[in-house]
Amino acid sequence: MSACKRLLYVVKHRSLWAQVRRNVTTWSPVGAAFNAKPHRRLDLFEKNGLFGVPELSCPAGFQAAAKTALKNTQRLVEKACSSPPGAETVECFDQLSDSLCKVADLADFIKVAHPDPAFREAAEKTCVDIGTVVEKLNTNVELCKSLKNLLDNPNIVAQLDPDTRRVAELFMFDFEISGIHLDDKLRKEAVGLHVKLLDLNNEFLVGSHMPNRIARSAIPEHLHLHFASEGSFIQVGGLHADSPDDLVREIAYRIYLYPNADLMNCLEELLKCRHKLAKLVGYESYGHRALKGTMAKTPGQCISLTAKDFKMMRDMKKKLNPHSEYLLYLFLCSGLSSALYRYNIEPSLYSPYFSLGACMEGLNNLFSQLYGVSLMSEHPSAGEVWSEDVRKLAVVHETEGLLGYIYCDFFHRSDKPHQDCHFTIRGGRWCQETSQYQLPVVVLMLSLPHPSKSAPTLLTPGMMENLFHEMGHAMHSMLGRTRYQHVTGTRCSTDFAEVPSILMEYFATDYRVISQFARHYETGQPLPESMVARLCESKKVCGAADTQLQIFYAVLDQIYHSKPQNRSTTDILKDMQQKFYGLPYTPNTAWQLRFSHLIGYGAKYYSYLMSRAVASMVWKQCFVQDPLNRDMGERYRREMLAHGGAKEPMLMVEGMLQRRPTIEDFVDALVSELNPNFETFIMDSES
């Protein structure tokens, strides 16, 4: 390059270099990576498949991947049925599970996240095909017999290590709840119901995220900019709970929750099929079937937990004056963020201190201090990701090396669900065939605003907390080192799976953690101490409303999955809302049709309450004195995160707390979250 050209190059890119130099001195590498705008990839000749899977460079690749998985399935089934009973049998079952899950889990994510309809359709078909095979395997008598021969032999069982025995029992549990004990005719009926439920689950899940639309003329023109446009219609794809505008929230609430007749029929049929299946395989209700093997054990325990919580909440509400009652109403109907906005926290004042890069830097610092783990930004290969703004993180331990990968699909897309989620793409396991550990791969999906021309993505306090929550799931997957894929990371009891994510919410609202990373994206100035204190106090105050909301959801979920009610899901909603929510039902709305947790958390939504109780106890006993204590972080990993589902959840809790909690302990933990200075705090906010 000539001297003249070099000069022009420097002048042309002077502002860029100044920005890079400023970022280098201000942010860590991971912080700088997430505050920078994504670069368009120009790899014209290189073309990899999604997540580095060669077949998935085009939609047709899903069929090829499924074909390979099914071929492996046949081989492994034959091996399991012919091998003598022993640890090798369990290893064979886990390989079988891994072969299917690596295709099904990836497809499960792509069917909702990929912007190309052809990829989504191919992935959806693969999910159904693999799911159908899994249900048939769960009623395969010969396959079950090979496992039963192992578990029925006390001499062989005595030789198994605890993890192998636990995984063997979990596989047997899958056979039992699928109806393996039934005769041929009834087993076929059970498989048919399973397959039908796969279709209904998918239909409801997709429908629950679809936007509703209304004529543009039906909405005041000055509000059009708050919603997506579709010709002469306005699309409403969410509740807009973060909006400070009352009318925007009301419009969103009424339109987004307007009943869809087809989706209503789908939900009604789904609940009937679940109950019929549960009765067929020998359970009193779907709730009884779903809760076997959890910490709660039975629907009765769930109801006990929620009823006791609700009584405590009602007693607390009676102590509030009308002013505070009105505030609680706003919390419940408008959402946590908008209530904070109106009565305490102005999000726009906090957002400049919570750039996405700053928050990622905070997470990196936290994990480094607790676990000796760093988040390293990597450039994905062409074709490896489904959208140009997806970031890839390598999770690296200071002595153990690479632990796994996290793909960060953080930004809003019109065809993407408006729900924060964690997806397991590949589970970790020890591979005897290669003598290496199969590294876990996960995706975190958020719906954050894109960076602007003048600023990086700026998060509200609520968005920041959600990011920490989902990263808790990711680290559960990364820090586990289970021998078997079937119990890797978040593949554990549902009422334990939310503990790591909810515990991260406590870190996200602790002043010592926030003070480490919250700084202005332009000036580098830290968030003022008074604002940090206000934010942390706000979280405590909101505990009452948040807990009551969870109680309502949990009770509704349990009623839907108990014995048939002989009334519509909307009638049940009205009744439960009156009893456990304290707010009147809004006519011509059907909130249950947006309750997508009914799919993945059917009869298990109480898990959020149970997990919050456990997280509260862990926080107060182990971290509240020093949230950055390395010894406690290592203990937390050793006792709770490392095992995935390979250990009974209550044993993990007991190991961490050094005692075995009761239902009363869980209730007390939740009630202790309620702030006794609620009224004083609100009056102070107004002044």
UniProtKB/TrEMBL annotation:
Annotated cofactor note: Binds 1 zinc ion.
Pfam families cross-referenced by the UniProt entry: Peptidase_M3
InterPro entries, sorted: M3A_MIP (IPR033851), Pept_M3A_M3B (IPR045090), Pept_M3A_M3B_dom (IPR001567)
Domain (Peptidase M3A/M3B catalytic): residue spans on this chain: 240-670
Any one cellular-component term (Gene Ontology): mitochondrion
GO biological process, one term: protein processing involved in protein targeting to mitochondrion
Cofactor(s) the protein requires to work: Zn(2+)
Protein keywords: Hydrolase, Metal-binding, Metalloprotease, Protease, Zinc
Single GO MF annotation: metalloendopeptidase activity
Domain of life: Eukaryota
Sequence similarity: Belongs to the peptidase M3 family.
Listed name of the protein: Mitochondrial intermediate peptidase
Organism: Amphiprion percula
